[in-house]
Design brief:
By secondary structure, this protein is α+β, with helices and mostly antiparallel strands. It folds into two domains: 179 residues; 149 residues, Alpha-Beta Plaits. It contains eleven helices and five strands. It has a five-stranded mixed β-sheet, sandwiched between helices. Helix 2 packs antiparallel against helix 3 and helix 4 packs antiparallel against helix 5. It is rod-shaped, with a radius of gyration of 40 Å. The relative contact order is 0.09. One of its GO terms (molecular function) is diguanylate cyclase activity. InterPro entries: Diguanylate_Cyclase, GGDEF_dom, Nucleotide_cyclase, Rev_trsase/Diguanyl_cyclase. One of its GO terms (biological process) is negative regulation of bacterial-type flagellum-dependent cell motility.
Length: 379
């Protein structure tokens, strides 16, 4: 079989849809964890400024011995995709610990800093839900857990018996929890819709590319026989002429179906079409993948065979003649014993010769084969 449409290629473009790739999620989680670590450490300067010595030691212990190790552990696990469940659990725990450490420190800070610590803790809960890049189930568990523990610390004041203070912050924390989860859910929905649009757009581009390739193939193909048409051959000639690389020459065969007009006159054009299709199929079976078969005219075909020497080219032409004769297609205009045959003209490859010149030489050889009695090869 010949290599169909060798000049057409499926040009892949970078239009694959942007999906929730694991590495993209890992990058977002890593950025969130680094931001959390930096904010946690930077907050130490505020602790030093507003807390007394015993409570400062408590704050430093929470930040450096609880929050920081959890965040660093989450960063380490973030580099190991196989431990995604463990990484999510540790990251969620780090966010909860960060929010609760700020809440706990706020219980001992003087006003007006105590209120600011409490609001900062709610901001940590909100930011963790919205930008932590955890899965939706993990985000829900993290946010609800942080909110419940925030309420417990706020109401009790970390005292026993509980102080039952700051009841107003309970309602604010519940509102923050609901808003944070709804915002995260809406964000996930918007991202999913955007990814669906991108996937659809990518699919449309692939379909369009395939349709264009199919259209190009159709425009270069003879619809009756499936061989290439003259337009394709003209493109090959133009490409060769435009190339700056010196041509090594290509062997060309010109093939003509003997007495084909007589076949159509006696057998009809429908039978003639079936005959041509069978001849083309037989020729293809005896060509290489790199050879190019072109329907040059009504019953005339050109074959471009690169890389063959004179003997190989002649042997190929003889093989094609035998293959068509072996079909034993009855020729209605030549009597009962008449069968369809072909004549072949050969133009061996000549270095620096153009493809157009080789075709012209092959056509002259074909003329000599037909004058010599047909059903033969002439060089």
């Amino acid at each position: 079989m010949t290599n169909q449409f060798p000049i057409f290629h499926d040009r892949r473009t970078s239009d694959t849809p942007a999906t929730a790739h694991p590495m993209r999620g890992a990058g977002a989680r890593r950025r969130f964890l680094i931001g959390t670590l930096l904010v946690n450490l930077a907050a130490l300067s505020i602790d030093f400024a507003v807390l007394d010595a015993p409570h400062l030691a408590f704050a430093v212990g929470l930040r450096l011995l609880l929050v920081t190790p959890l965040v660093l552990l989450a960063l380490v696990l973030n580099r190991r995709p196989d431990d995604r469940a463990m990484q999510s659990a540790v990251q969620a725990t780090a966010v909860v610990a960060f929010a609760l450490s700020v809440t706990a420190i706020g219980q001992f800070a003087p006003e007006p800093f105590a209120g600011r610590y409490m609001m900062a803790a709610l901001f940590v809960v909100f930011a963790g839900a919205l930008v932590s890049a955890l899965s939706w189930p993990a985000t829900k568990i993290m946010t609800v857990t942080a909110t419940v523990l925030y309420i417990v610390i706020t109401i009790s004041g970390l005292r026993w018996p509980p102080a039952w203070t700051n009841i107003d912050l309970v309602g604010l924390s519940l509102i923050t929890c609901v808003i944070a989860l709804r915002a995260r859910k809406r964000k996930d929905t918007q991202i999913a819709e955007l990814e669906a649009i991108r996937r659809s757009d990518a699919q449309l581009k692939r379909d369009l590319r395939q349709a264009n390739a199919a259209l190009e193939r159709l425009s270069a193909t003879d619809p009756l026989t499936g061989a290439f048409n003259r337009r394709y051959l003209d493109d090959l000639i133009e490409q060769e002429a435009a190339s700056i690389v010196p041509s090594l020459g290509q062997g060309v065969l010109m093939i003509d179906v003997d007495h084909f007009k007589l076949f159509n006159d006696y057998g009809g054009h429908a039978a003639g079409d079936r005959c041509l299709r069978r001849i083309v199929a037989a020729i293809r079976r005896n060509l290489r993948a790199c050879d190019v078969l072109v329907r040059y005219g009504g019953e005339e075909f050109a074959v471009v065979l690169p890389g063959l020497d004179d003997a190989e080219l002649y042997e190929t032409a003889e093989r094609l003649c035998r293959a068509v004769s072996a079909l034993k297609i009855p020729h209605p205009g030549l009597g009962e014993a008449g069968i369809v045959t072909i004549s072949v003209g050969i133009a061996p490859a000549v270095p620096a010769e153009t493809l157009a010149d080789a075709i012209q030489r092959a056509d002259q050889s074909l003329y000599r084969a037909k004058r010599g009695g047909r059903n033969r090869v002439s060089a």
